[in-house]
């Protein structure tokens, strides 16, 4: 018998808590990120029975530190396919090729103080992503966009199998991965993906459901209701 949508598991895509932008080690949770991740875990345990949770995460430090506070049930699958592209690498390549690409980078003050100029970077970064996605930007740090996309979509078959059994993958990863997966499954274009990429909140929840015909729907995208109150909403 074919299971209805309500009988199937749901795919939970969780962005990691706030990392340490502007420090020597970005790839670790800030104090805010730790609180965000704790609240994220409380939400997951309220929504999903323990027996249905199937945790996944990338190998980055901020993924592991977030997962440690979410604490879903079951042994986690650690998969490097869920790792983010290197933002610094894309920016370095974009700066080196800015003239040829017709890009106008932010001023030097933004690079010396990225935390205070985050809005400036977020406004500019979709241009960098667009150049990479169109294969106009050659990035030795990240390789090709098409390969990144293929990598982050590689766990989908296993997620589908679990969901068909009534299990819900709980995936801790990053904004570039989440936006790529969601855009692909919903049939959205790359402009939509880029907009979601730079607007995903830390510790946000995105939920996808698979229909009986194999298509997907997203009843929840970029939700941070669990951060209401004293926990700050952040984008990086």
Question: What layout of secondary structure does this protein have?
Answer:
Blueprint (H helix, E strand, L loop, with lengths): L10 E5 L15 H17 L5 E5 L3 H10 L6 E2 L8 H10 L1 H4 L6 H5 L5 H16 L11 H9 L2 H9 L3 E6 L1 H12 L3 H10 L5 E6 L5 E8 L13
Parallel strand pairs: 1-4, 2-3, 2-4
Antiparallel strand pairs: 1-5, 5-6
Question: In words, what does this structure look like?
Answer:
The chain contains ten helices and six strands. The chain is α/β, with parallel strands linked by helices and about 240 residues long. The chain has two domains: about 5-85 and about 165-225, Phosphoglycerate mutase-like (Rossmann fold); about 85-140, no CATH class. It has a six-stranded mixed β-sheet with strand order 3-2-4-1-5-6. Helix 6 runs antiparallel to helix 10 (about 190-200) and helix 9 (about 175-185) runs antiparallel to helix 10 (about 190-200).
